[in-house]
Design a protein that fits this description.
about 120 residues; 3-stranded antiparallel β-sheet; disordered N terminus
Length: about 120
């Protein structure tokens, strides 16, 4: 019984890692998804928050998860807050830059501007 429980827990953990590591499938405009930091942010998305989770391994206090937001399909005039750790898609402009503690993607990065206010213009 213990062996099957251990196997079941290992499979559940592997499934959770796969879910976090894979790119979101068919997200609706504005949806926010959590993924491991080692996964590239897909086109049409921006990073909106960084953090730590044991589900993506340990990295010496470096953020290892990020939340990403789907911007594709949002209407013109929409304003979003995003981390400066990825490029924003075409059709969006940066209207402000500022520091956000939730956008610290790298340890010891200081208090420099690391976040943007973005607006959809086309």
């Amino acid at each position: 019984m213990t062996r099957s429980r251990t196997t079941a827990m290992a499979l559940a953990g592997a499934a959770a890692m796969l879910a976090l590591a894979s790119a979101p499938a068919q997200a609706a405009p504005g949806d926010v998804t959590t993924t491991c930091a080692s996964t590239a942010t897909p086109a049409g998305y921006v990073d909106v928050s960084w953090g730590n989770s044991p589900s993506c391994g340990t990295q010496n206090f470096s953020p290892n998860i990020k939340q990403i937001k789907q911007l594709t399909g949002l209407p013109i005039g929409t304003v979003v807050q995003a981390c400066g750790s990825t490029y924003y898609p075409a059709g969006w402009v940066r209207t402000a830059s500022y520091y956000s503690s939730s956008c610290v993607a790298f340890p010891n990065s200081g208090f420099n501007d690391n976040a943007w206010t973005l607006k959809r213009v086309s």
